[in-house]
Amino acid sequence: MKKYYKDFSIKSMAEALEVSREAYYKSLRIKDQIKKEKEIILKDAIYKIWEDSLMIYGLRRILEEAKKIYPEVGKRKVRRLMKELKIKGKKDIKFKVSTTDSNHNLMVAPNILDRKFCVSEPNQAWVSDVTFIRCKYGWLYLCVIIDLFSRKVVGRALSNVNDAELILKTLQRAVNKRNPKSGLIFHSDRGSNYCSKKVIDYLEMNHIIRSNSRKGNCWDNSVSESFFSTIKREMPYNVFHDLENATFHVFSFIDDFYNCKRIHSYLGYVNPDRFEYENSVN
């Protein structure tokens, strides 16, 4: 009757089908109520997805997460409900300060990785970089190591000084955690901290192959650059009180959200931990 109400009157269709008009209108009210209830449930789910993402997910990621629960949900509906809920993703924050000191006479490695950012196994290639983290009394330095297989941060360290010790500490944590086989490629920029004798000796001792970006070419290490852009955009960013305070908040974001909750488009909208669990060949 609902389908043909433009062609025939409700009264004539009700008589032909031997049903009352009251029963027809009641069924419409029931269907409308069910639809509203479903929308309320979906609305609550969308808000929780956004809230659990530290209030950073935009339409694309909320849609992907919502589809895991309600496969039939569409982009238009999610956009409309987000608008009604007055929620939106965090926008990019322009934040670019170079930490690379390439004016040195230390041994620079060839660019072995050569932008081959897609690898087939864990611990096949790692990329690393250092960025500034703002502190009340100045700057802190965050070093990370990322496994290209899953985009998981496998090593991280914070320091008051951007030196070889910072790189070494991050490397030691990553190696102890992942126990990589011989032949792992470790790619970074050509800064003096990465090209120091301490770092080179440690890599050689663990049979890890060095790879350095070409001079002045940030695209050779774009995965690390992308990670830093993400963390500075999405982390509840404040000017930290001191090293201890920054360490707690930055590491919590990396360990408790980025690695195990945040979905990545490159990984098919799953988080790094889940991607490794589902795809690891080890």
Task: Please report the total strand number as a whole number.
Answer: 5
Q: Which structural class do you get from the secondary structure elements?
A: alpha/beta
Cα gyration radius (Å): 26 Å
Q: What is the spatial order of strands in the main beta sheet?
A: 3-2-1-4-5
> What's the end-to-end separation, in Å?
59 Å
Tell me about the largest β-sheet: 5 strands, mixed
Helical residue percent band: 40-55%
Strand content: 5-15%
Order of helices and strands: HHHHEEEHEHEHHH
Instruction: Give the rounded overall mean pLDDT.
Output: 86
The rough form would be described as: elongated
Q: Which stretches are poorly predicted, pLDDT < 50 over at least 5 residues?
A: none
Count of DSSP H/I helices: 9
Description:
This protein is α/β, with parallel strands linked by helices and about 280 residues long. About 45% of the residues lie in helices and about 15% in strands. The protein is built from 9 helices and 5 strands, in the order ααααβββαβαβααα. Helix 2 packs across helix 3 and helix 3 crosses helix 4.
Quick take:
The chain has 282 residues and is of the alpha/beta class. The protein has helices spanning 10-17, 21-52, 59-69, 75-85, 164-178, 197-205, 222-234, 243-258, 272-279, and strands at 125-135, 138-147, 152-159, 185-188, 209-212.
Topology (SSEs and partners):
Elements: H1 10-17, H2 21-52, H3 59-69, H4 75-85, E1 125-135, E2 138-147, E3 152-159, H5 164-178, E4 185-188, H6 197-205, E5 209-212, H7 222-234, H8 243-258, H9 272-279
Label this structure with key terms.
282 residues; elongated; alpha/beta; 13% strand; single chain; five-stranded mixed β-sheet
